[in-house]
Task: structure prediction
Amino acid sequence: MKFKFNITLNEKDYLDYNVFSITKSPYGKKQMKSFRFTIGLVFAVVVLMCLYGGSFSLSAFLSVIPTLIFAVLFQIFMPNIMAFSVRWAIKKQKTSGKMGFAPISTLEFDDEVFIETTPDNKTETKYPTIERISIVNKKVMYIHVNNVASYILPLSCFETKEQYDEFIKFIGSKCSVIEHY
Result:
């Protein structure tokens, strides 16, 4: 075993990961762009239908102004709306008793695989499965194995700066895409 980390996560850590995932990660940015384009297109169709139905009169133009204002505000506040929806979904998970993360786990990194051990589960993952690693605000590392699943490794798990540097060198030899946010 090259590295072993004892990890303790809370709801805020999980929320931060999900907000990062939908607003800043490459996966989330792509989805956000598609969603913004689709919503913009829907608003454009609604506005054109209103204008066409009103024979492009002054009253038709005035009637679409609130729709246009709403469309602009929706586009501006979309990341906040998405973050709110994530908070709501996590709260719903909590009330159902099934959270999407294990509060206590251990991550062990060997030469060929890394292993996550939780009180309920043990998962062994080969390094080629890692798509990218995101280091956010020098506080947390997300090891993405696909666009919806990641391992959360708080940088507070590292005992020293040297251990962190050594781990980055090691994991960089296993995954070439390490991004800092």
About this structure: The mean pLDDT is 91. The two ends are 29 Å apart (CA to CA).
